[in-house]
What does this fold into?
Amino acid sequence: MGVSYGEQGRLTLTDDDVIEKSNLSRQFLFRDWNMGQVKSIVATSAAALINPHLMIEAWQNRVNPETENVFDETF
It folds into this structure.
């Protein structure tokens, strides 16, 4: 999972994977009923419940050479 914040204080979470049982013991934001759901969306929703004033968005991109045009200097 990738995490970034911008100048405006907006937090961006990105992960192109879904939650599996093995993730439940390592990620405190995930619950049993989240298995099969997109990690970044679930993490964003859970974080927003903890802090409703958080400016956060979920992306479903993998951070790698193929997405370097997305995660460039302006990101």
About this structure: Residues 2-64 form one domain. The longest helix spans residues 39-50.
